[in-house]
Amino acid sequence: MKTTITPVGALTADHVRDALLAATAAPSLHNSQPWRFHCTPSAIELHADRSRALEVADPEHRELMLACGAALLNLRLAIRASGTLPDVRLFPDPAQPDLLATVRPAAQRPATPAERELAAAILRRRTNRKPFHPDPVPAALQAALRHAAEAERGWLAVLDPPQRLVLCGLARQAHQAQLDDPAFVAEWRRWTGRSGEDSEGVPARSSGPIPEPQDEYVLRDFSGGSARPRVPGKDFEPDPMICVLGSFQDSKHAQLQAGTAMQRVLLTATANGLAASFLSQVVEVPATRRELRHLIGGGLWPQIVLRIGYGSPVPATPRRPLEEVVTGELAPHRSG
Asked: Cross-referenced PANTHER family, in alphabetical order (predicted)?
């Protein structure tokens, strides 16, 4: 059994399939993949799939919106790589609040080298929870990451050493608060430490080493208890680049745009040989998110905390097949 995808506007069936595969390669909380796509003859619709929300870690569905924003940017870039301009409308129908965006193929125009570079980085991007090398991220690359966030109406603050020290304490506080919540722990266990055959959740192979008391930032064990101790003497990087990515408001619209900004930052990092992982617990616990907002000035809304540096290769996390996330112009047929 195989699936044939029909054209959408000026996009060929192959272009549509490539664009959908790119969209579903976006990162999401615990690899929950909380999105659906509906294809019509003229557009690709992005819908939030709230049945896949993590109600304990993300009760307001803020991280769900970030994930969908990341998927939207991938979709846009893949369409641009095909030589087509995408016409994107956010929240086009007030009667359908979970219809987050419609993307219609518009005029034909060759992609720029920068657009092709970002599109090529989509399938290479990984969440890297392992220790990074100690080499610092050059100032020019830090500036490029900030500009990437600004291109999507977001902002990226690179924390200085005193701010990182405060963040370290907030990360520990948030981590302990979540461990003290049995509902969080039960949800965490459902989504992490998965086998390599699962198409969702975080597989054990994508975990970092067992957290140790001296670790300042990387506290979570995604392995389901199967992670190995690190090699003696191989600790996490001593001076990590820690960034806070956020928005100027905290509405659903702003959160969706923050997701596109987050993904442009991650793809820019990937294209420049950098790795990244998330310190999500700081923004998942309301008390520490309020403290983080105060830390970065009080007038901006932190949406995610990123750890960025030079890492070793890690495997991709699995994705659900398109047949599970796409409806509409999908015509199944049997091949002979």
From this structure: NAD(P)H NITROREDUCTASE RV3131-RELATED (PTHR23026:SF123), NADPH NITROREDUCTASE (PTHR23026)
Q: Where are the domains of the chain?
A: 2-125+317-333, 139-309
Mean pLDDT, range 119-125, rounded to an integer: 98
* HEC assignment per residue over 35-100: EEEEECCCCEEEEECHHHCCCCCCCCCHHHHHHHHHHHHHHHHHHHHCCEEEEEEECCCCCCCCEE
The answer, yes or no, to whether residue 217 has pLDDT greater than 60, is no
Whole-number Å distance between alpha carbons of 133 and 273? 12
First to last CA, the chain: 9
Q: What is the pLDDT of residue 335?
A: 36
pLDDT of residue 336: 33
When pLDDT is averaged across residues 250-259 and rounded to a whole number, the result is 98
In whole angstroms, what is the distance from residue 155 CA to residue 297 CA?
13
Domain 139-309: which CATH number of 3.40.109.10, 3.30.2140.20, 3.40.630.30, 3.30.365.10: 3.40.109.10
- The reply to whether the predicted model has a pTM over 0.70 is yes
